[in-house]
Design goal:
Number of strands: 18
Number of helices: 14
Structural class: alpha/beta
CATH topology of the largest domain: TIM Barrel
CATH superfamily of the largest domain: Metal-dependent hydrolases
GO cellular component, one term: cytoplasm
Enzyme class: hydrolase
CATH architecture of the largest domain: Alpha-Beta Barrel
Binding site for substrate: 63-65, 95, 309
Binding site for Zn(2+) 2: 152, 179, 232
Domain Amidohydrolase-related: 52-419
Helix content: 25-40%
Strand order of the largest sheet: 3-2-7-16-17-18
Strand content: 15-25%
Length: 425
């Protein structure tokens, strides 16, 4: 099989502390060589002068809706959206129908994943059917291939169940990924409690809904020694709690979404339900805290929480419309525009949060361009200016608040197992 040489690019690989012009040679789906001026010989040569070559991006929080909700998204369409956004691997959440709480559903998704454009991983549910009552069989799910457990979309309110879940996860070294919102403070509410909710005469979701569950789950992680990952952090105090826990040596990590570090609840006034998600968009103070958390390393990961919905689901009033937005095709562009081009972070910082850190937390052999590793590569044009057009998305869904945004920086090629799965026109 002919070898493929990626020539003339600037390699940024935080896993090896590489940030310099290098060529990359791929063969049989693996990285064979990475060094300067590799001879072209009889290789297939891809010239990427002026572009950045980085480890494939990993999104550890997506909803591909299959099985059960294929009108919203499928593994096929979701994976096409992923590679178009520069992602070579994604982790699917278990709130499907049926729920990912048994080996049969894991096997179904693995079978579908064989035809996907990117690598498909998945998390199993903490509780059966996401009902918060009975624990799923983590050992069986782990042996079948899950990389963590979560009841994402819901919070397990029964502390005794969560305590047992953490203890079992500790035995298996399984990541516990938690959606932190007290159901009693969220039910029948739609947006952040603040000036905008007052203006719209809506009962808002208080920040303590998130903060109280973060505090509980960090405490359980401390007592059991389990690894905990806080999903889609949205509040200043929540970030402070995680920062304090890390200083104490508790095994805690967290993620932030691009929408939570680029938008505030003011977006509701223009975008309506397309700016409604769970947890909700917060205040300027919270966005500033997320920026700080990204900068100082408190926030380990940037994840999308890609949540596709039909127009019917979203075209309702704020209380009745579905939570969530899509994010795979805009996440990198938003991060490059808001974090790199504005001088807040380096590309190396961004790749660490988009690739290296997720791989470490998930214990998967990705997030690196080391010789012998899988040839999962994203090639980025840092200067590419483009306008978000939801009608050009590969995702089935169009529910984004970023339609029409002008962004700078884009994935122009996405390589999975040595194969070019996306090439920008």
């Amino acid at each position: 099989m002919m070898k493929t040489l990626i020539k003339g690019g600037w390699v940024v690989d935080p896993s090896q502390n590489i940030n310099e012009p290098l060529d990359v040679l791929m063969h049989n789906g693996k990285i064979e060589k990475i060094e300067r001026n590799i001879p072209e010989e009889s290789h297939k040569v891809i010239y990427v002068c002026g572009k950045y070559v980085v480890p494939g991006l990993i999104d550890m929080h997506v909803h591909f809706r299959e099985p059960g909700f294929e009108k919203k998204e499928t593994i096929e369409t979701g994976s096409l959206a992923a590679v178009a956004g520069g992602f070579t691997s994604v982790v699917c959440m278990p709130n499907t129908n049926p729920v990912i709480d048994c080996v049969d559903v894991v096997d179904f998704i693995k079978d579908k994943a064989n035809m996907a454009a990117c690598n498909i991983y998945m998390m199993g549910s903490i509780t059966k059917n996401l009902d918060g009552i009975e624990m799923s069989s983590y050992k069986n799910l782990m042996e079948a291939g899950i990389v963590g457990i979560t009841d994402d979309g819901k919070t397990v309110m029964d502390t005794s169940i969560m305590y047992e879940a953490f203890k079992e996860a500790k035995k298996l070294n399984l990541l516990v990924s938690t959606h932190c919102e007290d159901i009693n403070l969220v039910y029948d509410r739609s947006i952040n409690k603040g000036e905008i909710s007052k203006q719209l005469n809506l009962q808002g979701i208080p920040k303590v809904a998130e903060e109280s569950i973060i505090l509980r789950d960090i405490f359980l992680a401390e007592k059991t020694g389990a690894r905990i990952h806080i999903q889609h952090i949205s509040t200043k105090r929540g970030i402070e709690l995680i920062r304090e826990a890390k200083k104490k040596g508790i095994k805690v990590s967290c993620e932030a979404t691009p929408h939570h570090f680029t938008l505030t609840d003011k977006a509701i006034l223009k975008q309506g339900s397309n700016a409604k998600m769970s947890p909700p968009l917060r205040s300027d103070e919270d966005v500033e805290a997320i920026f700080k958390g990204l900068l100082d390393g408190t926030i380990d990961v940037i994840a999308t929480d890609h949540a596709p919905h039909t127009e019917e689901d979203k075209n309702k009033n704020l209380v009745e419309s579905a939570n969530g937005i899509i994010g795979l095709e805009t996440a990198l562009g938003l991060a490059l525009t808001e974090l790199v081009h504005k001088g807040n972070m380096t590309l190396e910082d961004i790749i660490r949060k988009f690739s290296c850190n997720p791989a470490k937390l998930l214990n998967i052999k990705k997030g690196t361009l080391k010789i012998g590793s899988d040839a999962d590569i994203t090639i980025i044009d840092l200067e590419k200016e483009w306008i978000v057009d939801k009608n050009k998305f590969y995702s089935k869904a169009k529910n984004t608040p970023f339609d029409g945004y002008k962004l700078k920086g884009k994935a122009i090629m996405t390589i999975v197992d040595g194969e070019f799965r996306y090439v920008a026109v």
